Structure prediction request, 425 residues.
Amino acid sequence: MKPTKAAKAANIICTNNGYEVHNLGIKIPISEMVQKVKEVGADALGMSGLLVKSTLIMRENLMEMNDLGLADVPVLLGGAALTRTYVEKDLREVYNGRVFYGRDAFEGLSTLDKLMEMKRSGSDDPDFGRVPSGRVLPARSGAAKEAVEVPARSPEVAADNQVFEPPFLGTRIVKGIPLDDIVQYVNETALFRNQWQFRPEGDETDEDFKTRLRARLRVELAEAKAAGFLVPQVVYGYFCVNSDGDDLVVWSDASRTTEIERFHYPRQSESPFMCIADFFRAVDQGPDYAAFHIVTMGSAVSEEAGRLFAANEYQKYMIVHGLGVEMAEALAELWHKRIREEWGFVAEDGPSIGGLFRQQYRGGRYSWGYPACPDLEDNATVARLLEAGRLGIEVSEETGWQYQPEQTTSAIICHHPQAKYFVAR
Ligand code: B12
Prediction:
């Protein structure tokens, strides 16, 4: 399980409202959770998952609790990868006890309040948290779905697009990027609302709200600079590549004789049959190029956040952790822009930074684990390609294919003008 920041947000809000929260940490086996539940006589168990993988583990955990006869313990679930339907329909069908979805920490708090009220008053609402609800999918008709022939390539993706030659082939490491350059690319809504959990006060407009919080951001950034815990670093590079069916072949150099890595990308099973490989020339069509990057804010910010959490400085913890992760996201945006500059098509950018968050530029940037390329294992392939170990970045099956330090993210950058987000599976 990966509670990280999110579970901590729920933890902080529940603690502030009079609940005693026992935070067990990340990737905790169900046996350990059960042991703690019994030891403290917990009124409820909460789990949080950032990645899709954790949602599957949650399901297994609930089944295990059934088997152990512990289904009298209400379970609260939340996190980026979960959906209300998955919890309130699929998981309620699995768990013999009560299970709830918490869209945010406040929803978790009101569920707890209702559970406690029931306990205090001795009243019972047997349906609460038990009745499956949510979207009911239409029953599959007896007739088999008409077989769709999946083409080798999406007929909607142009194959005669301009190929841009990159400024160099191979990798480069960049350090010492000024924090002031990065902060301009911070998504303020994500930072102020989602990470820091602030909301407009009274009749404050969104713009007034942002102006108020920008002052706070300046203060936090100045503190971070003085303490030196935000350490932006990038490893990036350009490679000669070709598509080979649904694969992307990465060559050692422009002679295209030695394959050094190969990424497999899923193809949509329905029209328009998109697949990331289609954005690149096929082997027999001549050379094409892709850029890759891994950006990190370094391990010191994870350590500082960990220290604050351990010292029960929850509010400050949320600020520092949130700043670290949104600066990592901003660094990816900034570096993508630098790549467009170097590669010669930044003039096609939209007029505003806000527009960049909506992909107003030539081409696209895809991170593994996102819907167009869901396979997290390829985080390790790109780390190998860019030799990310040089920045102290680790990723393997042991880390659940997540990068360490946490405030790290990777991507492939395509110049094809049709390379925009889509859902492959
Ligand atoms: C910010 C962000 C990042 C940041 C920081 C991530 C972090 N560790 O915190 C950075 C830029 C580093 C990042 C990187 C990556 N990310 Co990211 N990221 C996000 C994003 C945009 C927001 C997550 C977040 O921090 N939200 C703010 C927190 C506070 O919200 P929250 O987690 O949802 O929690 C709230 C509620 O859910 C609820 N809640 C949560 N838990 C609980 C528990 C209980 C009991 C209750 C009641 C409530 C509750 O309360 C919280 C507060 O209100 C999400 C997409 C999204 N919109 O959610 C993707 C997302 C999590 N990332 C994703 C991916 C794939 C990645 C990368 C693997 C990409 C890559 N290849 O580089 C990497 C992995 C990082 C690594 N170290 O390996 C995917 C994961 C999907 C998957 N395949 O599993 C997501 C879902 C995007 C997507 N739509 O596909 N990411």
The chain has two domains: 4-121, 170-414.
